[in-house]
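Input/output pair, single chain:
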Amino acid sequence: MIDWNGRVRVAGALVLGLVSVAALGQSGAQARSNPKAAAVEFLFPEQITIPAGRTTTVALHFRIAQGMHINSHTPREEELIPTTLSIPEASGVRLDGAAYPPGTEFTLPLEPKEKLSVYTGEFTIQARMMAASGDHLVEAKLRYQACDNNACMPPRTITVPIDVLGK
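Output:
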């Protein structure tokens, strides 16, 4: 009987160990394919000073996660979601326009004849902003659709926090 109990304990420990390893593997896979994780990160500037009442161009820098791409501001297909920047109207700062970088031509391995216009790595949007006098905590928004070589995630909007001082 002691031998049987010992074997049961060892078998139980092995099962628990295998379940733990499987759970760790699944959580790692979920982290890599988590559609809630942002594929685009706002890098800088977090704070800017611009002349109050005058349109000023501000360079906003972003980074796309490795192995991902997002549609450019001017995708080649009408059904593709363009990358766009917006600023809420009640923020004390107005977006008078934005100059987006040209997209890079990209071909998916499964569709070698179809050319996409995408951003990869780091990119910069030249935003033309006008601010009222004072300190404005702006929560600009960047809307994009991220994809890898196999699938696209649903469109996503991230907050781009910028402290704008209009002087």
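The longest helix spans residues 2-32. The first strand starts at residue 40 and ends at 44.
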